[in-house]
Design a protein that fits this description.
By secondary structure, this protein is mainly alpha-helical. It has 16 helices and 3 strands. The protein folds into 3 domains: 51 residues; 63 residues, no CATH class; 249 residues, Type II secretion system (T2SS), domain F (Receptor-associated Protein), CATH 1.20.81. A hairpin with a 5-residue loop joins strand 1 and strand 2. It starts with a strand and ends with a helix.
Length: 400
Amino acid sequence: MKKGRFEWKAVDDKGRIQHGSWVGNEIAEVRSRLRKEGYFPVKIHSCWNWQTIFKPSPAEFQWIHFARRLTTLLEAGIPLVQALETMTLQKEKLTSQQELWKSVKEQVEEGNDLSEALSLLKSSPNSFVLSLIKAGEYTGTLGKVLGEVAEELEQDQVYHKKIKASLAYPMLLVFTVVLVLFVLSVWVLPMYEKIFSGMGTELPFLTRVIFVAGRKLPVLLGSGLVAAIGGLLVLRFTSSKDWKMGLERILVRLPLLGNIYRLRDLVQFSRILERLLSAGIPLLEALRLTAGTLRRSEMLELTNQLVQSVRQGRHMAPLLRASRMFPDEGAEMIAVAEESGQLDRMLHHVTQMFRRELEDQLGRLTRMIEPTLILILAGLIGLVACGVMLPIFDISSHLE
């Protein structure tokens, strides 16, 4: 088998995120090597090359469907291996999803735990899902935990759809503004410019400015589109593991989006930590696993500081109070929970609080962007109409 280069992201024994690039035959080999060296793998993917452009990507593993079906069978009292066997006996020709389930069953039959079998897949679930499943295996509540995994993934999916839906209409308005400008500059303004130039009259200053801008606008719009697409492609293929993070670092600097990204990180942090603690994972290990699922450097740095603080036997609340990322109200709630020993329950309430605030911010952003873009569109159309009508009024006055 031809070897390839794989980029990886993992958590070390001190809770710090490490990145690297290794040569290997497949993802499972790299994951096994990481575990032997004391790392907890978070993400592993093959490096980009020219062959990957034309190579179709594997079908996405529907982990929600997998967890729901397996939960039903396990809670009905069916053993794990037999439940996995049942999930692959519906058709003579297995689908790509059922092929993956069959490989999981074979790994379990060889003596591996379900979490280990899932981690060996090329399209394995993230570290958060694997950690919950491992906790369910240790506590003997695998069926219940799988149900919680499916519920969490479904909630996360609905939540991301809600964010996309909130931003869909503003993006449509932006596209409409660009399209109207393009139509005006390519078809409408040249027609009027040709008519007025044939009359030999001196045009008002506003009209001349609009005609000059109309001639240059298609070039500017085309150049901007090509530059944006080219920049994304370069970022995607030259830094394939960090291109989304790089794009987010650009977006987070925008005045309206910065707070939304901060709240999204807080929701992700508190939600994952609460789920891991509820599954029986110790706080230090839960923080390390949570750090492995975070993307933005600010939240990751705060989580690593929390890991060091908990390792030294200190509470998390003082660090959260001193952080600019974490709201004071959330820090006080966690301080009370640490004193009462109910951190997982309090984190659930903190997550709900952050989610409500994030939804309010998304609604506020939508309400601010929509009228602004409508006013911009109306203003541009009105300005062009005035510039075109001024020569007509001037000509009509001379005719009188």
